[in-house]
């Protein structure tokens, strides 16, 4: 049994969450792996059942662990990435938020597409082809494709070979889904179809400049469309007054 | 008294956290603002004291609320941004993590410096000048300046006028502090001093290409240094074997 000392002003619950994280990382547990039962952890750490339960709750709230009814506690598939990691819930004047997001995406995604054209594995290329088919299918049925659109970009980020870009893009898209409402119309449907196909082709053929340029055009045209839509709504307000 | 309905498979605690977040955002509460007492929330939501306390704990674990001994509960200064937002704790083979991070920074920060050269307010410019002085002071005393270095880059990100870049950079630097150990030596001290001064001058004078290039060189040289250091340690291992 190991002893937990109070230091650096941390509470016992905080020290216990730190110890559980150490337990996970030192064993390199992966999403979906089961963690020991309450009884096993109580054997290991010199803490009360109450403290241990609090620590579990904190780790579940932080998307590090997840509890499955009747099956036990597991490493969360969300990999500790929280629900609103960019804190966008607390940026209130959100008129400009969608534009800020596209400007950031323009900094990252063209280069991500370029890296994917060099580094994507055969498996990742196949996942992109499959996601393109799902996207085309949803569009042809007139259904919403926001989630599939995000997943396509996410797959590209994961194909860069840079793990931080993969995790970051996951954060950006969960922030978009939660905090930014993108109104899409016919213009952006045809943009999405045309440029997603172009980006996919460039990645499959390893053409880095095509990948870079197609992604740049894709996002820049969305940016133009957003500014145009904003100007139109401004004009309407002025006409009415 | 408002009633909370169970839907979409959410637990009562999850629904209650959602309601508290709604309460915060609808009133546009800011970091440091006090939130109502337990009794006031119990009046407002039809939940048990136990459920409300659990919801508070979740929000504290997510860095949305913070509890101050004897003073009550407040909106956290951390703005809901968690301790390891990029989930880097769970990327285990971290040999390449520092390089992945610098590659990502090279995508974002040169353009951020360019934006800051156009958009920085007088207050933000003064904050950059002050931080440069603190940085120079620490370096001249031979003290660690990793935190001040990060804050300098953070101030630039906040001066872009793009709020998402500001929050994102906060995430990147807290991830670096927590997950990536950067070994700095004399080479990177002189790099830091020279290029931070160049970047500062360019931002103060509104020179966008100078700002872009100085930041690019600053980070590219750190990148070169990291690769060189990695090769040297590889060579040592080979010599020994």
From TrEMBL, chains A, B:
Pfam families: FCD (PF07729), GntR (PF00392)
Residue ranges of domain HTH gntR-type in the record: 10-78
PROSITE patterns listed in its UniProt record: HTH_GNTR
Highest taxon in the source lineage: Bacteria
SUPFAM superfamilies cross-referenced by the UniProt entry: GntR ligand-binding domain-like, Winged helix' DNA-binding domain
A GO MF label: DNA-binding transcription factor activity
Alphabetical UniProt keywords: DNA-binding, Transcription, Transcription regulation
Record keyword DNA-binding present: yes
Protein name: GntR family transcriptional regulator
Organism: Anaerovibrio lipolyticus
